[in-house]
Amino acid sequence: MTALLPWLVAAWLLGIGLYGIVTSSNYIHLIGCLNVVQSATYVILLCVGYRWNAGPPIFDPQPPGTPAVDPVVQALVLTDIVIGATVSALLLALAVQLHKRKGTLDPEALRPMR
Amino acid sequence: MTRTARLLLFAVAVLVLAPAGVVVAMNMPAFGSHELPYGDAVNSTIPAARHISNMVSAVNFDVRGLDTLGEEFMLVCAVTGTVVLLRGERGEKLTSHPAQMRGRLNAPRSDALVLTGRLMGPMVLLFGLYVVLHATVTPGGGFQGGVVISSGLLLLYLCEDYQTWRWFMRAGWLDACEGGGALIFVLAGAAPLCFGAHFLQNIMPLGKFRDMLSGGLMQIVNAAVACAVLGGFALVFLEFLEETREPRGDP
Amino acid sequence: MTDLLVPLPIALPLAAAAILLVFAHNWPEGAPDAIAVVVSLAVAAICGLLLPRVAQAPIAYWFGGWQPRHGLTLGIGFVIDQTGALIALFIALLFAATFIFARGYMPEIGTYFQALMLLMMTGMIGFCLTHDLFNMFVWFEVMSVAAFALTAVRLEASALEGALNFTVVNSIGSYLMLGGIGLIYAKVGALDFSALAQGIAKAGANPVVTAAFCLVVIALLIKAAIVPFQFWLSDAHAVAPSPVSVIFSGAMVSVALYGAAKLYRQVFAGDPAVDFAMHHLMLGMGAASAIVGGLMCLWQRHLKRLLAFSTISHVGIMLIGIGLPSAAGTVGMIVYLLGHGLVKASAFMVAGILLATYGGIDELGLRGLARPIWPAGLALALAGLLLAGAPIGLMGQGATLIGSAAASAGDIWAVVAMTLGAALTGGAVLRAAGRIFLGLGPVPGEEEFEPTEREAETRRPFWLMFAPCAVLVLAALTSGGTVARFVHRAAGPFIHPDNAGILQGAAKLTGSGGIAPLPPDPHPLVPWLGLALALGLAAWDLSRQYLPHRLLSLSRMGVAPVWAVLSKAHDGIIGDYVAWMVAGLAVMAAVLALR
Amino acid sequence: MTVLLALLLFLTAATGAGIVFSRDPRRQVLAIAGNGLALTLLFTALQAPDVAFSELAVGTAALPLLFLVALASVRTDRKSDL
Questions:
Q1: C-alpha distance from C364 to closest chain B C-alpha (Å)
Q2: How far apart are CA C80 and CA C86, in angstroms?
Q3: Which of B94, B237, C85, C390 is most buried, with most CB under 10 Å away?
């Protein structure tokens, strides 16, 4: 069970985030839910690179050669975090402007031009 | 679709996907004890090849530097988009006085807050700088340091008055910082081409292992990333704050 | 020398965009436009120089000088074959044409427009050339984020709403892709395409590999707007500024499918579940997109929205090409991608010309108004004929290749679907051309003018806007046979890459042998049937006033229920779109489980 | 160690759900910061100090701040529905 836990948590985050997006009635709330979907990818990637009884991939006190976890996935997650934050900023800017024009943030009350 | 129909569709889909997810999870390699050939190769070759101890920085700025280059420009895209969207019809003019929120007093800041801010702000900035500079040795680097510095600038906003802060935080400067960081990154990548090396190839002197300035080209790339991240996040904060300060007139 | 050229298609536009941004406020008027045109032409020239150099064998270029050692790849490589270079050349030329078309567009946002467009171009080119899965994701994100921002720059409510839906749906797609990358990394421990291909072959049939493929490909299908992931497209393409729509429909959507084809052929091919998914699911989804897009297209009156739905139909046809087991299908898809890009770009340029000249784009509202700019009408009509599947030019060659590959695989229904989809969209475009430029069709009553928001775009000289449009559509018309033969000759390394050579860091990759000769078209009459159907549809709609009432009401009764269902699904509510997306994922999983 | 990781994974799952179920955007800001903190702890336990640092800076500070500011600017707007 423990071995499955990381993957199940990632799947849970993905599912619950999507549920939030599907049911959201406020764009700002929806953007928060999008961040939950994204955190699933952090969990997957970092858990993939984890290794029991290994240190961080930074050989500062310990000498190179000591067992360390995978640095590649960590670099990928760093990239991912920056992407997530900036896309959130962009989405928030869209939501703020939309609110200025339509006075609401409820997706049901707003519809693009037909 | 009505809300119920949508939820029903979603529920049915999740019911189908759940067993598929479990099957995939059961077939995943064992957590924490499977092979990691790529990561191990990095861990075993980089300290000797690049004289640095932070493998994550090595992957970000050297081995997979192209990813970071793309990501930096993605940041530029997102920030540019945010700025264009928020400025919109407001334009880039400085407002001469801090507009205040409708129906709310602009309470004067307490001395304690100003003092804390003035003490904390520079300390946060210094800490950010430290984080940027030690990218190749200890955890941290251009990303983290850039974000820390930009939030330090935000802290200064809390304690200084609006005009001083706005004088200090010019959109033009931040634009230049962001775009300039990105530009330095590309040029740092292209410079080795002049010496017959590959794009982003690290042909600079590498320095001593665990030295603050070890890693050669990585130092430049790291500084460029710090500039771009700092400028980008500060611009986003600035434009969002401007947004709160300007109540719209009646339509 | 060759080595020097490879990073430039990326480095040059990135540097130009950065310089544009650093001096954002100090450019003399017109300079950013000129820089953008020059840079995109320079990138096109570089790709053009690369083409003959990779004719014998592809080039592998390792960024940072991290050549693979002992079969292990550390760094990121670009492996450039003729197909990739050709697509990059096409993208750069399309951007150059668009920059000319857009000269003087949106002075209010200044240099930001050109900078974002250049970054989007870089994202697409990097996406096409890269040989590393995560790097592919990064360039995919660069292109997406630039596209998100560009959709909304006009700041109208509909543009903002369209951009929000676009961003949310596509970001979910990106995160799914990243999850897929995590799964495949767990299983194989590599990110380079060749290393992945070898690792997958070694791992054998495995649900993790299949799941990774599904997740990665879904992101690309979302970007490509394949049914049931297509909803965001019509919201975004209809409201984006015209030059941006040109790029969206002409390149962005189909480039995502090119990525899917590359991933399938170079990484995942051979895994039985993945092969099954490609040859059955993708065919089905492609056929569904062709039909749904075609039907929705026929029912639109907002010209940009009409063209947006026709894009859905045509990417469906491309997906059919990818899904076919034979290499001929993939070759056909690449030819079709080029042809469709040129034709659809020029059609969107006509829409942009109408917006700039008449300030509106409602088909009924513009009836007969655009007679003075008849050359644009000619271009739109020509585009309509080509979209309808006329067996001439690039699109015709591509459609013939895909159709004959489908027929030889025994999937006649796919041929029917693609012919029907093309005919529907072609009919719609021809009808719009006839109504707007010739004043055909019944006179609309007062109540039929729908109030639209301010859409007018900056007025620019007509010939400046029309020249790129005419060049593109003429290129699509005349270059068919040559390009098709070229793509066929070049497809060998695309379909069978030299994985062993790449992984050994070989200085010279072997140019793997060609692929099977293309099958002859078994049904040469089918495209003409489609064309006739398109002309019939257009004629039917434009001569309503002469048709007997009984016939009209009968046809309306037949069509109304389909229209009701489809239009209700395209309701602009983000929650619905995401629910459909999850349902699409569930269908994929179910089909693969019950295989 | 196993127990710690499992606990942190559960914490992440719970705080993630917390974001979704705090339907009031103002309360959601707190949930986002909480989730950021949970992720930071998880990343530290997974031996990823670099990533934990970024998550601390971005997830617990910058991102909630952005949400706060966006909410404030929506509230400044007269036709507010929040």
A1: 29
A2: 10
A3: C85
Q: What is the DSSP string of C557-592?
A: HHHHHHHHHHHHH----HHHHHHHHHHHHHHHHHHH
Beta bridge partners of C362: C302
Strand partners, C130: C78
Q: Are C106 and C353 in contact (CB under 8 A)?
A: no
Q: Determine the Cα–Cα distance for residues C23 and C39; give it in Å rounded to an integer.
A: 17
Fold for A7-102, please state it: Helix Hairpins (1.10.287)
Amino acid at C461: P
Q: How many CB atoms lie within 10 A of CB B72?
A: 31
Q: Which ipTM value was assigned to this complex? A: 0.93
In chain B, which residue's Cα lies nearest the Cα of C569?
Answer: B1
- Please report the residues numbered 23 through 52 in chain A whose beta carbons come closer than 8 angstroms to any beta carbon of chain D: 25-26, 28-29, 31-33, 35-36, 39, 42-43, 46-47, 49-50, 52
Q: Could you tell me if B28 and C186 are in contact, meaning their C-beta atoms sit under 8 angstroms apart? A: yes
Which residues of chain D make contact with B147, given a CB cutoff of 8 A?
54, 57-58, 61-62
Q: Which range is most confident: C344-348, C475-479, D66-70?
A: C344-348
User: Domain total for chain D?
Assistant: 1
Subunit contact C161:A108, Cβ cutoff 8 A: no
Closest CA to C221 of C588, C593, C571: C588
Which residues of A fall within a CB distance of 8 Å from D49?
Answer: 56, 58
Among A58, A89, A97, the residue with its CB nearest the CB of B236 is A89
The shortest C-alpha distance from A53 to chain D (Å) reads 9
Residue D76's pLDDT band (boundaries 50, 70, 90)? low
Nearest to D77 among B143, B241, B248 (CB): B248
Which one-letter amino acid corresponds to residue A15?
A: G
Whole-number pLDDT of residue B8: 94
Helices B171-194 & B65-87 angle (0-180, nearest 10): 160
Runs of H (alpha helix) within B1-107: 3-27, 37-50, 55-58, 65-87
Q: Are B27 and A33 in contact (CB under 8 A)?
A: no
- String of DSSP letters for C235-304: HHHHHS-HHHHHHIIIIIHHHHHHHHHHHIIIIITT-HHHHHIIIIIIHHHHHHHHHHHHHHHHT--BHH
Residue type, C356: A
The domain segmentation of chain B, as residue ranges, is 68-89+129-242
Model's pTM, two decimal places? 0.94
Report chain D residues whose CB lies below 8 A from the CB of A35.
19, 32, 35, 63
CA distance, residue A87 to nearest chain B CA (Å): 6
The SS3 of residue C72 is: strand
- Residue D81 in domain: no
Q: For residue range C215-254, list pLDDT tens digits in order.
A: 999 999 999 999 889 999 988 988 899 999 999 999 999 9
- Residue C156 near chain A (CB below 8 Å): yes
> Count of A–C CB contacts within 8 Å?
115
List the single best residue of B101, B239, B244 to mutate versus D (max D Cβ within 10 A): B244
